[in-house]
Design brief:
- The protein has helices at residues 10-14, 53-63, 77-87, 104-111, 129-134, 158-167, 221-230, 238-247, 251-273, 296-305, 330-341, and strands spanning 70-73, 94-99, 115-120, 140-146, 171-175, 197-202, 215-218, 278-281, 288-293, 311-312, 322-326.
- The chain is α/β, with parallel strands linked by helices.
- It folds into two domains: 10-249, Type I PLP-dependent aspartate aminotransferase-like (Major domain) (Aspartate Aminotransferase, domain 2, 3-Layer(aba) Sandwich), CATH 3.40.640.10; 252-341, Aspartate Aminotransferase, domain 1, CATH 3.90.1150.10.
- The strands form two sheets. The chain has a seven-stranded mixed sheet with strand order 1-7-6-5-4-2-3, with helices on both faces.
- A hairpin with a 6-residue loop joins β8 (278-281) and β9 (288-293).
- It is globular, with a radius of gyration of 22 Å.
- The termini are far apart.
- The model has no long low-confidence stretch (mean pLDDT 97).
- The protein binds 4'-deoxy-4'-aminopyridoxal-5'-phosphate.
- Its EC number is 2.6.1.9.
């Protein structure tokens, strides 16, 4: 029995996935009369590869993991939702999450009618490991971590992540959406050590592909098989798969964007520090800054009036008085600073 088989919802364990005639034919060339497609309007007339074999092989080579350990989704929001659907019985099971963190863990839980037990971070935005473990009971199937965390921006201590993985009896979802901005800090090289670990990454941030929706979940082959059988068959469209393949040929371009954005983050932070209404900035391992200001709501609204949109996080637990600012291009950051200087 797999580590997680006893955790799976029985209907998911029993599920027979949707099958297509092309499961038995993997060639690119052929006369395809099996799926009621239109023979005209190539290449978009054909359904995309439901198993995303070419793209997975390329991601596997770059990430140094086996293709069988990769699930690809319509953004990383898709595997978040699928984890609930695979493991959590609506109205019965629960999950534990750090707080504050990315809002979709709660929204996906609400859609699936699952209780979220939130455990506040410490004052320095690290995890309270004993409290997280104590919040779990026999019906706690998932535990959500996010490192670097949104909206606090920081990475968690590796020893704490390890302690959660060892101490928690369910599945741990470690969301690394911003990890490309924290080189060397990914937990991915240690994936095989923990059968209960799922690592999420995305093409939406450092890879600059938010509009095409491509997220990754790295996990044991057994868990990847479960997620694959419950996803919509054609969850990744042809354009997304092709564009990602091209982008993956130029990893150095992504690395240059990251370098530029990390440099801009420091420039932006230094300039923000000079503004009289900026009270505090938090250390960031990501492409955004969490900034404590006087009158955060008024600053947010003032900027909207100048067509500059940032995120008001001032009513979020432990982020009182804070604005979250994405690091933009040098020109965008200049526009932001010019506006703020006139506030
Ligand atoms: N995780 C975190 C922590 C995020 O901040 C976001 C996007 N804001 C996502 C996941 C979602 O990413 P995707 O675009 O891949 O769905």
């Amino acid at each position: 029995m797999n580590y997680f088989e006893k955790l799976l919802r029985p209907n998911i364990a029993r599920l027979k996935p949707y099958s297509s005639a092309r499961d038995e034919y993997t060639g690119d060339e052929g006369v395809f009369l099996d799926a009621n497609e239109n023979p005209f309007n190539s290449p978009y007339n054909r359904y995309p590869d439901p198993r995303q074999r070419v793209l997975k092989a390329k991601i596997a080579a770059i990430k140094g993991v086996e293709p069988g350990c990769i699930f690809l989704g319509n953004g990383s929001d898709e595997p978040i939702d699928l984890m609930y659907r695979a493991f959590c019985e609506p109205g019965v099971d629960n999950v534990v999450s750090i707080d504050p963190t990315y809002g979709m863990y709660q929204v996906a839980a609400d859609i699936n009618n699952i209780e979220v037990r939130k455990v506040l971070l410490t004052a320095d935005y690290q995890m309270d490991v004993p409290a997280l473990l104590a919040a779990a009971d026999d019906n706690t199937k998932l535990l959500f971590l996010c490192s670097p965390n949104n909206p606090t921006g920081n990475c968690f201590h590796i020893a704490d992540i390890e302690a959660i993985l060892k101490g928690f009896k369910g599945m741990v979802v470690l969301d690394e959406a911003y990890i490309d901005f924290a080189p060397g800090k990914s937990f991915l090289p240690r994936l095989a050590e923990f059968p209960n670990l799922v690592i999420l990454q995305t093409f939406s941030k450092a890879w600059g592909m938010a509009g095409l929706r491509l997220g990754m979940a790295f996990a044991s082959p057994e868990l990847v098989q479960v997620l694959s059988k419950i996803k919509y068959p054609y969850n990744l469209n042809i354009l997304t798969q092709q564009t990602a393949l091209e982008l993956l040929d130029s990893v150095s371009e992504m690395e240059n964007w990251v370098k530029l954005l990390l440099n801009e983050r420091e420039v932006l932070s230094a300039e923000l520090a000079k503004l009289p209404f900026v009270k505090k900035q938090y250390p960031s391992d990501s492409n955004f800054l969490l900034v404590k200001t006087e009158e955060p709501r008024k600053i947010y609204q003032y900027l909207v009036g100048h067509k500059i949109i940032i995120r008001d996080r001032s009513s979020v637990a432990l982020c009182e008085g804070c604005l979250r600012i994405t690091v933009g291009s040098p020109d965008e950051n200049r526009q932001l600073l010019d506006a703020l200087k006139k506030y």
